[in-house]
Amino acid sequence: MAPEIVPRWEWRTFGDRFERAEELLAQHTTVSVLESDELYFVSTNSNASVKVRDGLMDVKHLQQVNDDGLELWLPVMKASSPLSADETASVLTTLNVVVPPLEHADYTLDAIETELVRPNPELLSVPVFKHRSRYVIDECMVELTEVRAGTATTHTIALESPDPALVAATIRKFGLDGRRNVSVAPGLKTMLGFGARRYGVIDVGTNSVKFHLAERRADGELVTVVDRAEVTRLGEGLDESGHLAEEPIQRTVDAIANMVDEARRDDAVAIAAVGTAGLRSAPNRAELVDAVQARSGVTVEVISGEEEARLAYLAATSALPAARGRLVVFDSGGGSTQFTFGQGEQVDEQFSVDVGAVRVSERYGLASAVSTDTLDAALAALAGDLDRLDGRPTPDAVVAIGGTATNLAAVKHGLAHYDADVVQGTVLDLDEIDRQIELYRTRDADERRQIVGLQPARAEVILAGACIVRTILTKLDHTSVTVSDRGLRHGVVLARFGR
Hints:
18 helices, alpha+beta, Hypothetical Protein Pfu-838710-001, about 500 residues, 3 domains, 8-stranded antiparallel barrel, Nucleotidyltransferase, domain 5, 6-stranded mixed β-sheet
């Protein structure tokens, strides 16, 4: 009788060193030291385990992932060469690629590599050398491995047992519980830069935290996987007190931590977090930065207004290639508005003004219904606050990005559910902006939340935001603005992960 195959719960992570784990392993006797040359077949469409070891085709299927992120793998094939056509087709199916017509009754391992893997751009054969040191800790198998693939070298530590609770306990004991579980196939793809790779960007604004997860395909194309925002009102009370308050900090840290967790669950190979006006102006910004670092291991980089403007311009121009001539791109957030003047890819001037929807709303009481006199006073004050725009030549196009602009576009289209493709490229003329200003001026926050297309959490600041957009167009002597759904987060992806 064949021996029973027992599925094992596995957990593995990649890295240069695992200090606490290695210190603990040094206190135990090595069970075995093994060296092997193996050949992995990896796919852009699958993270399955398919390798050739000791002359055998070794295939495992992922059966389950539990709440601790442990993976249950089941060996389904250990076949010697040659493989039958059916076995060969099974290997290709596991790699999630189209099985071509198989012209032979059987295939040697060399034939599978040369005839079926190498010609397929979705597959890659990876010669791998492993130096493995094995230990048994409390009946849990632990393997510390040096991995060489091509010119790349790294290390992995793997834990496995039929008992998932034992694996989870050993992970905690080794101080590895903050790391992500990465099996060999995706680890090799990351080492070699093969196939799609995912990158997370978190934009920590004064009013909202935006999360963008992009996937860079093998051909270099960047595709959006996740793009969402959570209103945390980090800047609540900042204009009056000059400091970030404890509750807004906690709300924002919680939102960032959840986004980091989501990015890691979705296999992001890198996560960048940037902070903007609210953090730039707050003397106690370190409270948030330190809390995020302690909670998630991610550093929020507080960028300058000029850098924010540059990245916003990059995002807008890449997404609206039809924009020609002299171009002004602005991003009006909760605490500031960033401007970039340029032509094509050439940037002529960038600056940031401390005029944002949260500040304006709090300063002039625009969170609820107001009189025309109050509105006129706010518009007059904004004209003075934005005097840096005075006396400039009329641009050929004005582009707005950010939450204010996209909400104005969504309200124009009456979008019950946000649709980035509909919002992208929307033109808002002065008549439409004035219509919406009057819509918001005559309603309190609860009534505004009933307006189709308006994000409910923006009800208190949308009037201020619309007034800012209106004032900018007046200053630039332009009659309309084109809305880009792309924002700072897209610019960070392009600048840091686009190649």
